[in-house]
């Protein structure tokens, strides 16, 4: 049997729980606002899970689903709609395959409706928009607005046909996840736990969704944060006992002698995966894309909340992008990006609509060259000889000269031809400081005679008031280097 996880999202009081209740045949963890606080306040406070099963031959699924599965189980993930519970919604969005966005037609798109639209756009390829509470409008009002109303008065009195239509649309929007899930089967077992509770006489129940790998009754799983290992006593999938589970399956795992207070949400896995799990101080993302509706700027060194699975952490962001070479194809997209630890990357101050990689750490990332490009410009004050000149304007009085001595610099000379924009470049390097005011000695290749003539009188000082020469120093600094060393 194929399991499809369907997220039911929308603004508070848009009818998400009522829709899930109409669709479902089996209620599971926290379904339909079982929580006493939910009933008291009249809103969903936690993720609620329920399901229904359909025969694949009765609905327009993809041919591969018809061939490989007799039945398809839809697991509905009823997410809270209140703005203060958006973190719970984000945790639920990590495990869903398709989104149903419920819109209250009497109020239209509201604040959390837009937030759920963004979450759905990020996490899923397919979304169904359900217009709820249509029966509140009078039939005449609908006729005035639409020449061919979708729902007739006869249909509004009979919900079963509308539910069948919704299931049909849901079946049409499902892509067969079998190929991707088969790849995940070979990985270590990881199980995203969303609820943990104790049943007297049986043990502690961990309910959640399998992210990767497989497990079965009798195998040992581990809780990485608690450093605890427990043997699986039994497994149930919506009140049906089963022997094993795999990627995408929703299940409850029963383990003995585990304090339910130790785990509310988190990850559990097999012994191999839990032993290999280590604290993560830095993370590389191959591509990040700014949400189109977010109008504020996102800059490097920003502190933002990062949602990974069931965890929420505070991270420092650093954006950088790959340095383009002559061999790079101009038509390459961000999908072709492959991280090379030995390559050099450009530091990005602010993220545009599409950019490169966020990174965070102070120790583990020092081996990566994420560089800021720097340019300093100065002027020739006087020429000592054809191969030496004194430059001012490149540095300040308090500059630490040790890190700049020996760096390559060059002089740009504007040609004197009328209306000419051509320039001549003369390479050199910084030999030493000169005096205490930030001046330096610049060793050069031979200067042209016209430049020597310009600086020849009055002890070598330049006579003309408008500079036609410029000294340029270009270098890079690794943003993760604590010593702030210079790279050329």
UniProtKB/TrEMBL annotation:
Positions of the Tr-type G domain: 1-178
UniProt keyword terms in alphabetical order: Elongation factor, Protein biosynthesis
UniProt-listed InterPro entries: eEFSec_C (IPR049394), eEFSec_III (IPR049393), EF-Tu_GTPase (IPR050055), P-loop_NTPase (IPR027417), Small_GTP-bd (IPR005225), T_Tr_GTP-bd_dom (IPR000795), Transl_B-barrel_sf (IPR009000)
Any single Pfam family the record assigns to this protein: GTP_EFTU
Protein origin, superkingdom: Eukaryota
GO biological process: selenocysteine incorporation
GO molecular function: GTP binding; GTPase activity; translation elongation factor activity
Protein name: Elongation factor EFSec
